[in-house]
Here is the input.
Amino acid sequence: MKPLGYIVHGGDYNPDQWINTPHIWDEDMRLMKEAGINSATVGIFAWSLIEPEEGVYDFSFLDTILDKMNDNGIKAVLATPSGARPPWLSQKYPEVLRVEETGIRNEFGVRHNHCLTSPVYREKVRNINRLLAERYKDHPALQMWHISNEYSGECHCELCQEAFREWLKKEYDNDLEKLNFKWWNGFWSHRVTDWSQISSPKFRGENHVPALKLCWSRFVSDSHISFFENEIAPLRELTPSIPITTNFMGVYNGINYQEMAKKLDLVSYDSYPPFEIEDSLEIGREWTFYYDIYRSMGGGKPFFLMESSPSLVNWRDVNVIPEPGRHAQSSLLAVAHGADSVQYFQWRKSRGGHEKFHGAVIDHIGTNETRVFREVASLGEKLKKLGDITGSECKSQVAVICDWDNSHATEYFHGFNNKRRDYFGECEKWHRQFSIRGISCDVISETDDFTKYALVIAPFMYMIKDGVKDKIKEYVENGGSFVATYLFAVTDTDDMVFYGGLPADELKEVFGIWAEESSGIPEGKEGTAELCGKTYKTEVVLDVIHSRGAEVLGTYTSGFYKGQPAVTRNAYGKGKAYYTAFRNDGDFTDDFCEMLIKDAGITPDTGITASKEVLIRKRGEHIFLFNFSDKIQTAVLDRVYFDIFGEKEVSGEITLPLCGYLVLK
Ligand code: GLA
Ligand code: ZN
Here is the structure.
């Protein structure tokens, strides 16, 4: 998408809730302008208004709203309504209702409760989307398409089972024997002799075949993608120049976001960081990971912060109002990592229904007299000063591999430590080491390009997909530094263990090691390993490895494998391949990354110095400093900068108060 030249400031606007009090719509327009809102997302849940009965359409509400928005200079992110259906639809066509894993069909209710395969549902969605595109394709307010809402879940109905079997036939070249072999079905006498004998993994049925589970996850993801493609077909046809996005949720892995992102014009993220509930510094650090994922998913291009709360949410166990100043700080954290928007759920608080106590820009009082409104309006003013940041990118010297497919593979196998896997947490743990040092870090999939990075870290990269072994080999040969951890390169794309010793094939040569055994480590029975004179706990899981030429940097200091290598470095071609054979949730990643950064000749992205409690991010020409800690922080600037919000030159030591931030150029 072309940069807009201004930060989109807006969010979910559901004026359908005030259809009987339309004077509120005029008040909305007035207050939006006052709050510096330049865009609103409309129509997300408007299906029952625009098609009150099958084939009966009434677009008057949307016409009015879009015209009002246009008259007031507010752009429209127009949503397709498939995230929630009108009751008549499932009453007439029960097949659109989702069937749970139990085999029981759901009744009407909530959202997302539909079958993604159902031809009727697909047709109904395509139809309403076509009508929306036909009607509003030339509307001057139309800015972007927002497809559905937070796609998620799965359906186990007969239509989906049949579609799954068709998916499998394609996957295995219509060859049942191939499937039997890849799924290892001969064991336990589970060889299938007809495709009809296969169905989705279920608690009451087949749930001990990791390859089946993996295929099902891939199928569910592909169904979402094909459902999405069905939705956007009329939009691509009628509005080819209008960008298309859909809102994703963090590291939700029911859909392979990294694959789906390829179909979007830009990636969007619904972000609800719990600053007010957990340790705010930890949350600030953790959220840099999600923002880096979203930027990387879109190939490094800006993403949209499609939803966030200007106040509290209503769906945590305990929902707490954020302290003053947090809202702007939290929103700017997204911008610092590549967001070209700050959008909210939702503009005006519902009076009834499920979300009546979820934060919104306008509270039940209905006026601008609230702290939240003032904070949003004040941020609106600030965002106006950041227009030139849109389109700019973050240059990363480092990448962490965090692969959606691998997240499933690491979840489905039985062995070693069945309780503690936490694939995304492992990736986040390594990623933050760069974030806290002011070094931008991309978060990429296995199949993305490594060559632009000086250092690539692959935490718990258990599954190595086709072509990836060669890619790692070439990357290191050509001078890259690659770090692998325990249980590395164990299985292939089909989740079958590589024969001939681990890590797979020629990776043994690249890393100069051989992993002979792996073991889980029970809590309370942790062991130790040593690196540069410091001792670390070995926890959760470890590999017993042998050096086959690699330099041994650290060794185990407990267990029968005491004295054997635990951390290695192998010079290979022009590069280096590191192996850390154990998991540690303490200081190890911090200390080891310090060494890696020096080794790879990586320097922080700016010359500004501060403690690790200050987050420093560079995006294009802009530098952001954040204080998420519970203490006043300082930083020392390396030259004279322009403080964009303070509109003055700054140099030397600066102070960051609680919830503090500074944007420099
Ligand atoms: C999600 C949904 C919104 C709303 C918010 C509440 O992000 O997309 O419709 O329910 O959660 O936080
Ligand atoms: Zn279904």
In short: Residues 99, 115, 117, 155, 157, 159-160 surround zinc ion (ligand 2) (CB under 6 Å). The mean pLDDT is 97.
